[in-house]
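Possible race condition, two jobs.
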Amino acid sequence: MSATAQDTAPVSRSRDKTAGDEEATTDLKLGEFQNVPTLTLSEARLLINAVMDHRKQQRTVEETETLIKTQDYLDVFARFKQKENIEAVERMLTAHTELELFERSQLGSLCCESAEEAKTLIPSLSNKISDNDLQELLDDITKLRNFVE
């Protein structure tokens, strides 16, 4: 007896439609996340490590596989390790009020070398900041990364 398409179980469950049209292209559309504060990878690393240190002191540590993998990922990809540098980058980025919170955190995480690279990876920057101003910001971030870390 051969099985027909109607008799077989679906290979995967159906995918829910997204509520909005979130996209990070030339027009930044983040839906419900539009003005939500975001973190750079370095800030996330700092925050998670601080919480884990506190929990270790309280003896309430539960290190799950997901937490360990997240910490490993952040250890590799967080560009800044020292709190002072993370705060300095945040101050630089916060000074650029023309940029969305998402764009600032992306710039702080990606640490692009050129304005062209930044605008390629973060297309919504294209009409918000001049190449010269963006390059100056990127150079300042790079100085912190190369000379202090």
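Job #2 (started ~2 s after job #1):
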Amino acid sequence: MQEARAPAQPRLMAAVASTGDVRKAVEQKPVVVVGRRGCCMVHVARRLLLGQGANPAVLEVSDDADPAALVSALRFKDISTKGVADVVVDAYGAAATTCHAAFPAVFIGGRLVGGLDRLMSMHIAGELVPVLKQAGALWL
């Protein structure tokens, strides 16, 4: 008789050593959640994305990491002239004019979505699944 195996859990990456590691993951993976080790909000963001059918990569940063410095260092070629707030407004139609970088930081399709609050508001408004599909995180 075979033993029942627990469902495979998404791999959690080890603590991130540099911004370059985060940049590489954001460029290569459709969905990335960056946060502090053991943060309950990272767990909630991960569970919400898993519930939608996406398998996010979770990157853990050290406790002394500065979220604003990390996010500002992750400006990509297509958005290099825009601020973090402009990225959120342009990519997802957010009404906010400022964006305070905080952990967890959720990236979908290489772009910063925001934190858990923005992720949940996108889900409630029905915007999350189309964005995940566009990023290639969902197969349906």
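The mean pLDDT is 74.
Logs attached separately.
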